Amino acid sequence: MTFNIHYPCTFKMAYSMSIFCKTVLVTLFLIRFVTLLPVTYTKPSTFLQDFRITWSNSHIKQLDGGKGIQLLLDHNSGCGFVSKNKYLFGRVSMKIKLIPGDSAGTVTPFYMNSDTDLIRDELDFEFLGNRTGQPYSVQTNVYAHGKGDREQRVNLWFDPAADFHLYSILWNHQHVVFLVDEVPIRVYKNNEAKGTPFPKSQPMGIYSTLWEADDWTTRGGLEKIDWNQAPFYAYYKDFDIEGCPTPNPSACASNPANWWEGKGYQQLDAVAMRRYQWVRMNHMVYDYCTDKQRNPVAPPECMDKI
Fold it and tell me: What is the pTM of this model?
């Protein structure tokens, strides 16, 4: 947009007129800028504004006027919640404080899911409990068009039960990025040109649960849950959703003005890449790409080394 306007402030006038003209210019600039901003969804003020409990209401407690929640796992039940809307592309984040102490056999997933059975798309964070003193592992996985089995595991470099930490999923047409405190730990690129499916057409809901899964969670199921440590608690706050909500997200999802589709988000910048490589070199403990028993020939999406 170009403003072809001849302003009187280009001439020598009184100081008050100059200030008036500068104000007009600033106002016109702001109007122009605001009209270019895409319409997206941002964080709710309370949990129930944008989420609903999916199971075991008695095991989810609202805190701080509904701005945070506590999830509980005991002998009777775990619990879970889901967003009221589904979203197509964008970024979702939560701050989570995980189960302290002996959490072996528990799993606390935070994930996106299309809820479409055999052709589901899914983007997973799964926080795997462990024995006291052992590192907490986070497993990520990507399902695209019903195909998963793309697990990677990272040992977190801090105690995720001592305080809240930010966990985020950035999803655009170019890649999916999993971030911990803004540090990328996993990148799944759009490799459709190589025949690898990429989630791009199915909106996904945002889920989280707390449950017992000691048949696989800790050391492949060798470490069982100690119910003497129950109840187990996890805490959440600062729910942040910026994306294109259903039921009709197509116009929004294809809008190149969405900030998550911007040039700066199409690939990792130099700083993010250094952080990503640091995580991979120092904290990765499992990668399906290098598991020769499962994949004698590395899947095509593994060839990019990212």
Answer: 0.84
